[in-house]
Amino acid sequence: MKTTIPAEPGQPSKGLEERTIPAPAAPISKLGIAAVVVTVVLWASAFVGIRAVGPSFSPGSLTLGRLAVAAVVLGLVVLPTLEHWPSKREWGPILAYGVMWFGGYNVALNAAEHMLDAGTSAMLINVSPILIAVMAGVVLKEGFPRWLIIGSVVAFGGVAMIALGSGQRSTADVAGVLLCLLAAVLAAVSVIIQKPVLRKFTAAQATWFGILVGAVCCLPWTGQLVMEVQSAPLPATLGLVYLGIFPTAIAFTTWAYALSLISAGRLAATTYLVPGTTILISWAVLNEVPSIWGLIGGVVCLIGVGLTRRRSL
What we know:
two-stranded antiparallel ribbon; 13 helices; globular
């Protein structure tokens, strides 16, 4: 944005100087803020829900069950208003984030939470917002400020602390850390791919298409899901249904809606509220508290995030 300012005092006036200054960031609407809050709370509850139903469902079957429920629920909303399906060209990015985010991310996270507590898992997934900010700066041209690099280094240091602390306990914990990091990478890449899709489709439609793709990828676990549902206690089955409706159908839609209004890097930073919320819910519901290394590493991650949000002078 360009603006004009008077000449410096004591200097000859040659009209008005023209200076280019950065345009102020557009304010986020109340609906956008509400969408972010809903996403943060429901995604935080997902880490606890996955941990709670984990003993009854394997990673693949849990993903399939969750996506199947979400596909039905969200389909009831999307199909009556769907005017056209994606073209062959438009299916490309949808297939990509459907496979990586709704399929791969969920399977990796479910497997990780068989080894790690909910709070630690949520902290490790917090690598994703930094990756999103970096890729958004390069791919989506949202900027690549100096503080983003500094904060990223600090946050990765926090992840390293969590990983080292986990490694001192067992190799299973290390595997859980690596699975969480894999999930974080898949989520970050998917957000960048999904952003342009939201220019052509509504948040609910873009989310539903991705859920359908993820569910199809998980169909090989159909037999296992049927057996596990038959043997699972009712609370576990209800937990699976909850995961399908709230953290999946609703939260992924509110995320997509917010992403259509806010830059990917800026929105990603809000998900750093998820770990703290997860720890509180996990403490209340599952009586789980992360290890001291997990807590310290999580704090360092959050400090890194704070640095990424500073503006370069």
